[in-house]
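Hi U.,

Before I forget, here's the chain from the pilot set. I'm dumping it here mostly so it's searchable later in email.
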Amino acid sequence: MKAGEDKLVERILEGLTRKGGPYLALGAGDDAALFTPRPGYETILTCDWFLEGSHFLPRKHPADSIGWKCLARAVSDIAAMGGQPRCFLLSLALPGKLALREKGRGRHWLDEFLGGLRRAARQLGCVLAGGDTTQRREILINVTVVGEVLAGRAIRRSGAKAGDRIFVSGVLGEAELGLQKLRRSARISPKNDRAMRKHLYPKPRLALGQWLADRKLASSMIDLSDGLSSDLPRLCAASDVGARIEAAEIPSPKLPQTGSKRFDALGLALNGGDDYELLFTVNANKARRIPRSFQGIALTEIGEITRERRVVIVQHDGTTKPLLPRGWDPFRK
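Structure:
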């Protein structure tokens, strides 16, 4: 008879593809996985925490969205380097009542969580290679993703130069708007609400990142996980440059017709996290090669890189002020 943890691991492995083609010689089920890098490629490694109370609320966030998002947000780091995800490791701590295969809440939560995780794994082309499980009072999830990129093609944060144009994908602040709606709403309807859908089921911009890397268009890149006001300064610090962005050019979310006074569109776009869009810089001579959209995703020029090591925003009235990092920070008091 199998012990409780063995049963849990068996449930996790159900339906999750463990064959990784030529790069994963041995997947989940052994003491460790065997990963074989392809000739001519570099390996990308990243990991991400997804914690109850800090990143999701079990009574508000559907379990399948937690399963989807824990993998999608980690894969977004691969997209930010122009790479392709290959496999992932899942470390999962959860209360015993959620791990048991019984009728009621426990079975429902884990089944839904694994369903969302399986859908994300299939759509993102990322197979399970292993991981670890344990018991704890709250839900703690850590995902490690292994990806690859052609040698010498990885896009880093450190390549921006003065005069480069700054672009962003998609609409910024939608995920934060979705979170605020989720907190205020007794009903969850992501199917008919774009902002809530983006918060619950983000889609990392893998195809865009690879397109930029393949054509050597982006001089630097970062994914917008903590908000534009926090992530742009990080890119500038890595490149030893500054930036000047235009408030009027920043793609902000469309606010709901009712209760819109409670929301600040520009504030959401600057400081809202969880968008997982791409922020990238392009040499001025190549900027016209960036289309207005890529596979239906808007690409917007919002400013330029400067020599001065400060990040500023030109407001709607023409005045300029420093862009303060007010995005997500788990250590901010």
